[in-house]
Amino acid sequence: MKRALIGLLALGLGLGLAQQAPLKIGVVVSATGPAASLGIPERNTLVLLEEQVNRRGGVAGRPVQFIVIDDASDTTQAVRATRRLIQEDQVLAIIGTTTTPASLGMIDPVAEAGVPKISMAANLEIVFPVDEKRRWVFKTPQTEQQMSIPIVRDMQASNVRTVAYIGFNDAYGEGWARAFEAAAREAGIQVVASERFARTDTSVAGQVLRILARNPDAVLIGGSGTAPVLPQRTLRERGYRGLIYQTHGVANPDFLRVGGEVVVGTRLPAGPVLVFDQLPPDFPNRQVATSYVQQYESRFGIGSYSTFGGHAFDAWAILRPALERALRREQTTNLAAFRRVLRDELEATRNVVGTHGIFNMSPTDHLGLRFNEAAVMVEIVRDANGKLDWKLLRTFR
Amino acid sequence: MDWTIVSFLTADALQNGTIYALLALSLVLVFAVTRVILVPLGEFLVFAPLTYVWFLPAEVSGLNLQGQMPGTAWLAAAMLVWWAILDRSNRRRAGLLLLAALGVLGIAWWGAQGVPMWLGWIFAILVVLPIGPASYRLFFEPAKNASVLTYLIIAVGLHFAFMGLGLVFFGPEQFRLPAIWPGQTPIGLVPVNNQAFLVYGFALLAMLGLYLFFTRSIFGKALRACAVNRYGARLLGISPSQAGYVSFGIATLIVCVSGMLLSPLISPAYFQGFLLGLKGFVAGILGGLISYPLAVVGALLVGAMESWASFQASAYKDAIVFALLLPILFWRSLRSHEIGEEE
Questions:
Q1: Would the pTM of this model clear 0.80, i.e. be above it?
Q2: Which site among B314, B318, B321 would you substitute to test the A interface, given the most A Cβ atoms closer than 10 Å to its Cβ?
């Protein structure tokens, strides 16, 4: 009897909401595994957004449902999750994933099924060149190429003539080596050494010696997470006095914690959201970034935000207006057609202000950021209380 | 390459080589007595300092752990309890093991509440130490008289399990640990980290200690007997399982202390043990996994190769070091009989 009553109740509810079937969006993030420190803020951000959107009446009057799957920083699991989201959950679009290799792996399944996807990983190859498969793929984070320009500009302003590079011996480090060395040569800065080290290395004395022997004006360390502390510490221990640059891969609190005194004075390019409260008042994404950080911190604690969550926020920032426009043009019940329309509308994204910049997509550009708004130079300083913090050095508007 | 660079590289080679030597000694010790190639020793090396992070005051570690206990304590306690269940027929031993499990949880809880740093340092080693002998009891002893290959497969499986647990326990990022002896002392042209002297000191101590243990103590002689001929040793009343616990225990202790001394120099993370262990293994192989002095020489050689390779062609560093293994393995396989087939 009781069970029948509950069933009846559920049926009634179901009928009531039939007009309002939720808009299903698949989300793949690396909430565990080596990329967890990036994936967790992304997941948190999307959970926050889902609640907020539904509290305020959803999108075009329909509730939104994010179906979140953790890929454990693993490409195979990311691909499996993608297929599941497409076939079983019949999602309209997919946001994901955190890492570059897994995001590349997801291109095939989404292109086969014709589902638009927005990646939160850095590498340019995820969306470039826009071909038959990459038509379906968009992304929000800045590329190495875009982040190289601010570094080179800052080096020029600091009279750097020679530079050495030391980076990870993986896709991240190689990508940065290509992007940065090309940008430096173009600006007339000589690259005098290009060294590699492994994330797992416990000593980089040999590489650092080679760099010291060339005596460059500056050194760029191309790594992410906390591993890039090691070359920096070795450089300082060996008496290097020049400028040290890092990449935006270290823009996380853990880097400051592990680095301590040796990372004071480090310069790095970062999305403007990292120093949201120091941006000039007329900076176009200051307001969006500030309100995002405030929302995030009020839910997950002061000092908990990182730039990575901002990429997830931006993914929804471009998806939401595209969804609204697509809903006007096509029924979601006509799934294949709706996904096609949604893809076209994503490509038609214009002047969407996100936490990391202003997005203007086109048929040849599925990222749509300009480095002018999407990158600022930041320096690591010790603040009045003796704590390490990020300080805005310059903007490029 | 001028003289300055050579001396800097030598200093780096010595530091890395010493750690590989300590790992190689432990590997050889375990292999000689039990025929197990203990791949997870590298994990034990990072477990100890990572556990120590959980015992550090918040202003030193930079973390707010709120008195959380390190996951290794639960792991060690669980393995000890399992051991007690396996040995339940021996009431006294089972009781002692349960007591040890409680003890591990007790000191982990106490350490997490905040203790002086030197005490936390010792606690960290005590928490991780039981994992070694317990691994032997739980995973290797049930496979009595298995082939070297079976043991190796078990060891590799354990390595993956421990590494995965390390990620769960300690998270993906590295940690900064305070040096016991901060600062640098110049030796000739090269400024050497004072902490590195502690590593060298411990390495010498460990070698001397092992030498005395094997030549002077009855336990050590029994272990050597096991290493020379297990069957014969058993006939003389030497328990092979006890020899197993002792050798695993000593190896884990050496590796844990090495890890504690090394960690301020490397910022440890869960993933760093494996590569260190692998290079220690390469060093051990150079000594045929039977000779302690040759293993030490091999370790210093690996350290030197590595420094030289990271200077000359950093992108191929590990490839060069591991490629070095091939000709030497080939040469050794021509000279020696297969190991582990003598029974």
A1: yes
A2: B314
